[in-house]
Amino acid sequence: MPFYSFATMLQKAGFFILFVTVLFSFQTAHAQKCNLTLKGKILHQENDEPVEAAYIWIMENRTGAVSDQNGNFTIRDLCPGTYTIRVQFLGHKEILQTIQLTGNTLNQTFRIEEESLDLSGVEVHGHREAVQTTTAVTSLYGENLLMARGESLGESLKRVAGVTTFSTGNTIAKPVIHGLHSNRIMILNNGIRLEGQQWGAEHAPEIDPFLADEITVIKGAETVRFGPEAMGGVIMVNPPALPTSKKSLTEIHLLGSTNGRMGNISTSHTGGSDKIKGLGYRIQASGKRAGYIRSPRYYQANTGMSEYNFSSSIGYSRDKLGVEGYYSFFNTELGILRDAHTGNLSDLNEIIENGEPFLKPDFSYDISNPKQVVSHHLAKIKAHYHLNTDWKLNLQYGFQANNRQEYDRRRGDLNAKPSLDLQLFTNTVDLFLDHNFKSNWNGSFGINLIQQANSNIPGTGVTPLIPNYDMLNAGIYLMEKYLKGPLEIEAGARYDYRTVQAARYVGEELQESDLSYQNFSAFIGGLYQLSPYFSFSSNLGSAWRPPNVNELFSQGLHHGAAAVEIGDPNLNSEKSIKWVNELEFESNKALIELTGYVNRINDYIYLNPTGETFVSLRGTFNVYEYLQADALLYGFDLSGSYSFSDRLNAYMKGSIIRARNLDENNFFPFIPSDRMDWGVSYALGKSDSKNSDLITLSNLLVARQSREPDFDLAPAPPGYALINISYQKKIKLADNQFNIGLQVNNLFDTEFKEYMNRFRYFTSDMGRNISLKLNYQF
């Protein structure tokens, strides 16, 4: 099928699947007399944290369910009538409640209260907050997260419909949610907003995915909860909750890949104290090394990388008081494609015209200039105190230190010095009060303070790309949520005030700026269980984002991106209204999620190629400038799965997005093209352990981006199709678990270029890659 009709094909496929599923459920519903469903969520009474592995029993017919990692449960095929529900979870008070099931699905929330910590044999949970929101949420955990191990955060999240990456080469990728990225997407590392030099396309998130046992994507505007940088969505990287009783778990990951000859190791140990009740800890470390990436016909010079990371946490929890300390360290050295830094204008034009690099070396692990070296420290301390059964006070402080060095190809002694050397210090304070009433109301009121100082380290020998600056942001917010039967409603509002003071020398002249920004944001959302099989959620929210310092003041060569960037100090704040709607169908065999959204952004800031070039002693570089225009982004995400039998399953996910420049009546650059990923999996194991051997075959279809801006350095590349295959095996060794994974991406070594890769002008993307992943838990 030609790629120009891909969008039409995806739309038809999505609605066809939805139609078939609806028809199937309609027939099933009418074929059964007892077709009612009880759905719900189990939460901890004191902090609204989901309860995993709670037992929910219906006493009258002895049927039940177990809650999943998000606290959700479903019991189907019930007759109309009155039932007694028993909810049980180790170390918590049992719940007995009578419910009435009539002609519709009942959505019930149970809040379970912990018993005394001093009871013998009681396992008391740790405190890891979970965001309860009516907007579209998807999480990676369990087997899906295990298959993503060894990948960057951006690459891992491509498993979520509506999430792609904006990359610089094949080793640097940052997540894109519904067309937005960088400072419009907030990343939370164990509840602390990650504050690094993330404004560049080649500035990947400074976080190690190995520290997480769950990664959650919120696709709506979440500025009320988290502040201006969450206008495009939120990514939550959550470590495991700390144990509060005697417990020990050690986990080791060993990974290797053929492309880049990558080796990766990670280990973690979690423990709880037997002598000090309520005390738990966790330590984790990882290391990664890779050499030159290979496209199907050649190696890409200077594309190696090395990385080593560490994290640790310790916590103490009693009846009313809980305290947690956390520290993480991230360090990476990344080579930049050598031919992205060309020597003269004719070379630049020639490499863009040819679409492949001049240098095609043999394999090497060497990392030379141009390159970047990044380190990031994050520390937090958090405490909570239960004022009573309904109110909890929380205090969280975070400190971060980020150092980014970018090296260019220079002559003599200057070659050993970074051309960009930035140091960013960030302090955050969050004070908030949660309430949780048994009358189905819960909410939060809080204040948030952010102080930031960025400095250029002297000695680079070049004028700084961005100035030194100090930033202060203060926010105050209120959110309320109501749950009753099949209905959930939530609303919130927030006010932020931000000041930015910047200064730098250009030659002998001191340039200073003192700017301030303020705005309100608000949202309202709801979720309703339409039937035993269908639920619908809708969320309407306003958001805003003040311009970042690079958008305001960039004036020179951005070495890591191999481009000259020009800012505008007169840029206005972005202001948006986003409406997200999600329809979900779930039966015993099928799951379909359809998300539609529209996002109107006034004064949208974007980096636009000017078509000009800048020639210096260090080479010839394309010139980009920051511009503003009103934008309209809209599209939909479709994901689903179907179980044909106990052994055979199928899945699909796809996304379509449009991003119009309303001022120029054309399209914005660097917006993901239409795509669909589908596949089938077959269980090879014995009948009593089918999931111990699983083989999956998948096909990724990506269309050509036909909605290009009026000017680009080169036309958008053709669409492409990739075949991937994987095999997962679980082996039980006494009480321990051993997992083996074998993955082959781009099975047929197809040569392709991804439109969202900024180096597509110079090289093709990665060729075939075979990965072996070993995991041992004991």
Tell me what you see in this structure.
The chain is mostly beta strands. It has one domain (137-777): TonB-dependent receptor, beta-barrel domain (Maltoporin, Chain A, Beta Barrel), CATH 2.40.170. The protein has 6 helices and 41 strands. The strands form 6 sheets. It has a 22-stranded antiparallel beta barrel. Strand 39 (720-733) and strand 40 (736-745) form a beta hairpin. 45% of the residues are buried. InterPro entries: Beta-barrel_TonB (IPR000531), Beta-barrel_TonB_sf (IPR036942), CarboxyPept-like_regulatory (IPR008969), Plug_dom (IPR012910), Plug_dom_sf (IPR037066), TonB-dep_rcpt-like (IPR039426). Residues 365-747 form the TonB-dependent receptor-like beta-barrel domain.
Features:
transport, 22-stranded antiparallel barrel, disordered N terminus, 7% helix, 54% strand, mainly beta, membrane, receptor, Maltoporin, Chain A
Describe the sheet with the most strands: 22 strands, antiparallel, barrel
CATH superfamily annotation: TonB-dependent receptor, beta-barrel domain
What is the gyration radius calculated from CA atoms?
A: 26 Å
Shape call: globular
Mean of residue pLDDT values = 86
CATH structural architecture: Beta Barrel
Strand content: over 45%
| Helical amount | under 10%
Q: Cα distance, first to last residue? A: 49 Å
Number of helices: 6
| CATH fold-level assignment | Maltoporin, Chain A
Extract low-pLDDT stretches.
Answer: 1-7, 9-32, 116-130
- CATH class category: Mainly Beta
Extended strand count: 41
Return the structural class.
Answer: mainly beta
Total separate domains: 1
